[in-house]
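BUG: 3D viewer hangs when loading the predicted structure for this chain

Environment: internal workstation, default settings.
Expected: structure renders.
Actual: progress bar stalls at 90%.

Input used:
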Amino acid sequence: MLSRTRFAEKSASSVNHTLQVFYCDHHEIPLPPGHKFPLPKYRMLREKLEQDGRFCLEPAPSAYSKTICLAHDAEYVNGFIGGTLPHLVMRRIGFPWSAGLVRRTLASAGGTIAAAENALKHGFGGTLAGGTHHAFRSEGAGFCVFNDVAVAIHWLRSVGRGHRFAVVDLDVHQGDGTAQFFEHDRDVFTVSLHEKNNFPFRKQHSKIDVELEDGTQDEEYLRALDAVLPSVWEFAPELVFYLSGVDALAADRLGRLSLSLEGMKTRDRTVIAGAKARQIPLVVTLGGGYAEPIELTVQAHASTFSIAAEVFGAGDAVEAARESAGR
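Structure tokens produced before the viewer hung:
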């Protein structure tokens, strides 16, 4: 366990440095024309953050299959990697099988693990992937093959890097896979704010579920968030995973909530600053985002990481160097 004093030392040492963030969009997934998965957003987001100057973008390392098997059924893992899963299983996931999908899926899980390691060292870790919360132990769904957060938690425990975790899932869809993984685990506190009448239609049981009606706007949403976060902080986790899906935006094709970009920014700042103020290491993953035009989704995701950079002090040294060079 990382003590609060040790966290403060690590956090202080990382101030004025760029934030390391992992990506896996260099692994291409061949998708048929008209597929609704917003594949371009990952590349667009990475390119936007590369221009920012406050981030160090690194390709995500691939997780080993044996690491994935700490959380998932080995037969399912090996079947996916080997391309032998039944057609109906892949159909539920929502992707056609390909070697590229395998590489990207392993990198997505590896990126979340690497981000968790960074968070424990420096207070913050980020990945431009992950948030694959619809994956269960022996099956995937909703564009989720393996549950990256569940894999990361199981791995961290296996190597003695932590025992007590919280998952704050603000994707518009309930994190049903994550909820089931940890339903009976007293040392993982799962929270999901999601749209009531949306996928998945068979909900699972998080420690706290907040079901929101269609059309919910900023004020009501933020009030609901403010009501549940104290329970997260009181749980005193050693690490918080924040699934920062942006499909609660009013412009999203697969969500029916009505949050504005400003409302999303307030949401992100509430979670990120709350963890920082309490010296709780934080991992930020992506999640859903299907707005039209896609630039709105990219903007919302980029704002999440921009707020993280502000809260964790990244970029001050970069700006100082620029000012020094200009003198």
